[in-house]
Write a structure and sequence with these properties.
- This protein is mainly α.
- Helices cover 74% and strands 0% of the residues.
- It has helices spanning 2-14, 19-25, 32-46, 52-61, 64-80.
- Helix 3 (32-46) crosses helix 4.
- It is globular.
- The termini are far apart.
Length: 84
């Protein structure tokens, strides 16, 4: 987990035009915790609707802290997309 978290931090620090697509690619990770971290980052840094299914998973399957973070991230995405 620490390696993935470090990779995610490096990816975000580098930024770049492909950050959102790279984070979205990580939503296919087999490890649920990795998918959730990628989804939270995608919502925070890109306000990307592709994060919503993983964030919904976080609300459904996560503990209270995970549910709170996923809920806040969903609102982050929704606030940037008036059509939602």
């Amino acid at each position: 987990m620490d390696d993935f978290y470090a990779y995610l931090e490096d990816l975000i620090a580098e930024g770049g035009q492909t950050l959102c697509d790279e984070l979205a690619d990580l939503l296919d990770e087999p490890d649920w915790a990795h998918r959730l971290l990628a989804g939270l980052a995608l919502a925070e840094h890109c306000q990307d609707v592709r994060a919503l299914p993983v964030l919904a998973e976080g609300i459904y399957h996560g503990d209270a802290a995970t549910q709170k973070a996923a809920n806040a991230a969903i609102w982050e995405v929704a606030d940037s997309h008036p059509a939602l």
